[in-house]
Amino acid sequence: MLNMLTMLLQASGMSGDVGAGLSVVGAGLVVLGAGIGIGRIGGDMTEAMARQPEAGANIQTAAIILAALIEGAALFGLVIAGFIK
């Protein structure tokens, strides 16, 4: 795995610093996870509102709160990924 990461870093023109590569990979995984989480919230919210339109306001409020919590966790993950050296 580290050999492949080193090859990717050399191909991209980076100095071969493994910490920088791990930081980039970590940040990418954080963003991917947040995108999947928020996408699932949006899809499930739409499905729930279609099933029970009278509960739409409560469902939408809960979905916005959950999306904000995921964004906060993603921001925390990006900060941690930035400290990897």
Structural notes for this entry:
The protein has 85 residues and is mainly α. The protein has a single domain, classed as F1F0 ATP synthase subunit C (F1FO ATP Synthase), CATH 1.20.20.10. It is built from three helices and no strands. Helix 2 (18-51) runs antiparallel to helix 3. The protein starts with a helix and ends with a helix.
How do you describe this structure in short?
By secondary structure, the protein is mostly helical.
Give the helix/strand layout.
Layout: H1 2-12, H2 18-51, H3 56-82
Helix pairs in contact: 2-3
Detail the poorly predicted runs: none
Structural class per helix/strand content?
mainly alpha
What's the story with the biggest beta sheet?
Answer: none
Number of strands: 0
The CATH C-level name is Mainly Alpha
Average pLDDT value?
85
Q: Could you say what the CATH architecture is?
A: Up-down Bundle
Which terms would index this structure?
mainly alpha, 3 helices, 0% strand, F1FO ATP Synthase, 85 residues
